[in-house]
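pasting input
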Amino acid sequence: MNNKKFTLLIVEDDDVDYFSIKRSLVKRGIENTLVRAKDGQYALDLLHNGEVTSPFIILLDIQMPRMNGFEFLQRLRKSENISSSIVFMLTTSKSEADIKACYEHNVAGYFIKENTGEEFLKIVDLLEGYWKMVHFPKINTEQLQ
Amino acid sequence: MPNKLDSLHSSRKLLAFAHEQEAFFYLSGLNCNRYRVNTFTIPTTDILDLITSAKPDCVLIDYQLQGNNGLQIINEIMLIHPYLAVIMVTDHGDENIAVQAIKSGAENYFVKSKVTAKKLDEAIEKAITAKAIQKKDNLRIRALKQNESKLVEKEKELEHTLKFQNLMIESIPEYFFVKNHKFELVAFNSAFKNLYPQDLQEKILGTTTVESYPQEEVDKFLEMDKLALESGYSETYETITFPSGKLRTLLTTKTHFKNSTGEDFILGISRDVTEKELLIQKLTKSNQDLEQFAYIASHDLKSPLNAIVKLVGWIHDDNEGSFDEDTRHNFKLIKNRAKRMTSLLDDLLDYSRISKKCDFPEHVDLADMKNTIVDLVNQPKELILNFPPLTLFIPKLAFQLVLMNLVSNSIKHTNSSFVEVNLSVDNRTAGYVFIISDNGPGIDYTYATRIFEMFETLKPRDEIEGSGMGLAMTKKIIEHYGGYIKLLDAPIGASFEIFWPNIQSPNSEDNNE
């Protein structure tokens, strides 16, 4: 069991979706550090600057300006040190092609935003269960440039 | 005395008429084997009747009959028997009388005292033969004349027919032409002719009009002609620039036919469909715009709407304690309106999508459908569905949507503790006739047509939540399959009659999704 607090990096351009996750975490009483990036480029910058403390889980949207989810995923998997980061997709896209592409880049899971509201609580519950039970790869964020 | 001529002629019947018996002396030498002679001195008034009944081969008339009235008698005989051989005899020779006798129709004229039996014999034979020939000739001429007048009549008919044919061709409001198997023009109307430059118009008959083009272009021009000749029919759309400079779209159909001698021809008609094509283009664009709008409405409008719902919910959740009654009520209203809008957007999208779907008939068990509907609808109250235990052959999804709509309406509007919906099925040759009725408050028959219009509700939306799209959508679905739905004037509850025709595939231009 992991008792350490985990960091959640949310890569999401929509404010309401971001707040939905934040509120769900609060509702479940989960204490953790939330870091937000509004697009893929910003997320990469944060990771490379060591502003995302390990262990962390990345919640990634697909539709974003500047650099979208796919591009971020590809760059992430090619980067040093952070390539084995745990990524969960959180997107509106139901496309089979998108789902397949994401899994081919080794995402840990794929959530579809149905906009019913309730599912964000369920997602948060799953993430909590995940970080408590699952062992994370070692990522030394202090060594990142 | 036996004569060589005896064997050539059969017996001839002769009638001789005179004023007195003595006048017949000239007949005494005639061969009685060859001639059967009867002499008469009857009154002239009886002569015609006698001739008619006796049917002689030849008649001899004495000039002196009834006081030198022989000529008159001959005239009378000729009127009735124009092909009877008549010979006039007289006591005294007279050139005038002779001429008149012949003019009156007699074949010959003799002075009694000067004629021999032999001469008489020859004359009688000659007269009979001549008259026979005359009769034959006259009959033939009459037949020819009849044929001639028939021919003239037929020629007139033909001219008439040709004129009418030309009139028909000219009256065709399209461009009309006929080509032979060598693709040369053999007929066309003025409209077609006027498509060509003035100086060529009188020259196009008998030509393909593309003689001066290189072979590859000729082949392309005549492609549709060849297709029609080989397979019987071709049609194509061509955009051509008219001599006036206008650009028009023509639909040209070519049909193959054979004439009575087996020669092949192509009949061509070109219709100006420019306006129609423009209209079709506009309609297609309009439909595309509508679909795009419906899609945008659904996806892009729903997203901010959902955000509003969430934000409002958060404000409510975070501040619930400090709300007064009014504020709480207002929040409830906001939530309701948002939900209503979402539901409306969903309905709009479904409504716009209806004609894209193509649902083919299949075997549908009403018992299964009943269970599906019970599972799918919102049931705040007890729901009883009375469906007959039948299997229908009907497009499943479409029919289910219709039933669900109507059942949902019944649930929505009920004023009792349970909802009961009855369905009756009448399987007619043309299709199914359904009657579906409930135990609700019913619908005033004065609104029979209004209820099917888009966005129409009969109760304020705050009393009964509804987008107003349900019945409009139901009607659209049913009409898409060629049927109808109408409100029945029922004493209790709401009652609808639906006709769903038997067709193999529904009315749909886009059968591909």
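fyi The two ends of chain B are 118 Å apart (CA to CA).
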